[in-house]
Structure prediction request, 507 residues.
Amino acid sequence: MLNRVPLFLLYVNVLVIAVCGLIYELLAGTLASYMLGDSVTQFSLVIGTYLSAMGVGAWLSRYIQQQLAQAFVEIELALAFLGGFSAPLLFMAFPFVEWFRPLLLGLVFAVGVFVGLELPLLMRILKEHLDFSDLVSKVLAFDYVGALIASILFPLVFVPYLGLVRTSLVFGILNACVGLWSTFLLRPLLRPHHVLSLRIRAAIVLALLAAGFFQAAQMTRFGEESSLGGKIIHTVASPYQRIAVTSKRGGFQLYLNGHLQFNSTDEYRYHEALVHPALLGIDQPKRILVLGGGDGLAVREILRYPSIQRVVLVDLDPAMTDLSKSFPPLVALNGASLQDPRVEVINQDAFLWVNQSSELFDAVIIDFPDPGSFSIGKLYTTHFFRKLKDRISANTLVSIQCTSPLVAPQSYWCIVRTLEAAGFVVKPFHASVPSFGVWGYALASLSDIQIDANRLPPDGQLRFLNSKNLADLFTLPQDIRPQTPQINRLDNQSLVRYYDEEWHGID
Prediction:
């Protein structure tokens, strides 16, 4: 039957099937995190749904008794179409579909069923040509190798250089090619009048997926503009995140992975509140450390003080800091702060950098993204804050953004209590930022904290803070009164759980 077909070619099919199957799973998990909140809960739901669906598919394969080769090709083509278009469909549907999570999990389940059908059918096709133990060992070996290849290349190559939508379509095309290729490899097992029909269907699926690939930019733009609510004027896909800049209501907005980072019309409120209270507690601040803040807006505020001699900005993503130096609207907004000769930009994970640097600073400004994932949550742990103490003196002031104390009080007070557990004296404060609502910060030091409003930059430089309203930032109203949540440690990451529950409603 298949004597003329090199069996290793069928094992290549197994390898490709494994790669495609895991890629679809990773895409769904990434989209779930991107759309619904970057959390372990989302990824866990996707993985659990996918694996259970594969079990269902494997169980259903027993009911396919005839024309195994034809069934295998048809399943490949169905998987190519459904899996290939899954990411574009989810990306564009998110702004319009209230039942997005059921839609996502339903697609994951359907893809998992098809993936679960593939290998049992292929193994049954091959069983007449190999000893059973040899068959199982080789098929499973190629399957696991494929999974390893996919897991390595997905974050390092496919998403950074193709993006989610194109990655989905590329692997749909690859699945369709397997289906078409299989009509030649399995030709002796196919009925003659079915071969042409299968090849025509494969060609149609390939044509549709190829058309989708060439329209991927338009689909991505449509999905982002519908979701973010503004015209996309600039996008960058880096190995770490997708950066999108939109334009609406007379200003522009910057999003990281779909989450608003600032609105140009009111960002000054956020950044003045973040930076100036810390610098007002220091006589003649000279050396300042900024962690995060790759947009350069916090650095802009720091450079208003004539005593500043050196600013070190540590931000993970060079795509973000490069944008802040080259994108004209952002350069105008941050006053070309990252091009100032006093500023050094270091593109490194702050979690690692604090262990390597020996430099001491007069003030530290922490402008990390909100703790919606473990990778960011580790930057708000007792471990990180204790390491940070090695970079400061007894009189250094640290200012950190802490999410909204009104919307996410457990998250806010978790950060405050974690700073205290790490040995800091902490003064919580807040400011009103229209794009975000009531926003929370904390001022921390190893000694008593005293702020001198007389040190504010001269009138005309600041648009929000003055000597009168500065004190009001530290007066907490009744609805954001202190709480005592768990301390955020590396081994529990309780802050990420609080953040998910409060911002995304995940129980």
User: Anything to note?
Assistant: The longest strand covers residues 392-401.
